[in-house]
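Title: Prediction job returns without error message
Component: structure pipeline
Severity: low
Priority: P3
Assignee: unassigned

Description:
Job completed but the reporter wants confirmation the result is attached to the right record. Sequence as submitted:
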Amino acid sequence: MSTTLAIAPITLYAAGLGVGALISTASAEVLGRTIVYRTTLPLALAFTILGGSATEFRVLAVARILAGIFASPCITIGVGVLNDIWDTSLEKTGTLFAVGLVLFIIWATQMGPMMGEAVVQAHGWRWTFWLTAIFLGISLLTSFLIPETYKPEILRRRAKKLALSIPSRDGFTIFIVAIGRPLHMLATEPILLPAAIVTAIFQAFLFFFYVAYALVFQEIYFFTPYQVGMCFGPFLVGSILAVPVIGLFDKLTYQKAREEAIQAGRTVEPEKRLYPAMLGSILLPIAIFWYIPLN
């Protein structure tokens, strides 16, 4: 098959992550966090197993986009859980957990190809699906240990236990509002659209390298799959080196703004978090084009 068709599954998976993030986040605002976790994780596991068992390309393609849709809550709702527990704009503990969540998400995207290519060379491509299924199974079991953190849902459950009257709610209307709110903010809030575009570009480059590294290093430099996976090591090193840089920005900019906000009794402006991203938006083009010959 053509290269374009061959990379369709990873493209569909990435698209599924985006679509699923919007739907799952809206659902979590209506139904609470835990029910979304415990519903989508089994489906993500099932479609991952289906993709690994596929003997036809169309089955693999459908399984990948559905796996992406149902795996996305693992990423998006985690931020909501942190915001349920802490005010991350003011509380240092919440900030540390938020940074940890982001770092683990980033490290996973960089360690995944390293592990996956090694597994491909040792056991074949289907074992990348089996390995993912194992991790999803562990996550599914862990999800049953996570209590509900969404306050409206906690109060609703408490009222049911006490046999109190519960206001009726139109779930469909709330769901539409939950989807419409972020889309409306994306179109009207000056900070959101540029930040979303920068994030989308960063993610696009990462998914692009998933495919480009394999094509370039295998077809031109005759690397083995294991060696191609090791080429993602610099991403991991770079993200680790970024941690002290983020800490420095936090100390010099955000913590000062945080102290002023606490004294004034208000929240910190979200723009104060953007300085590391501003630096990254300058360094990324330099990192991509540094190898262009000067002559």
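Comment from assignee: result matches the submitted record. The two ends are 38 Å apart (CA to CA).
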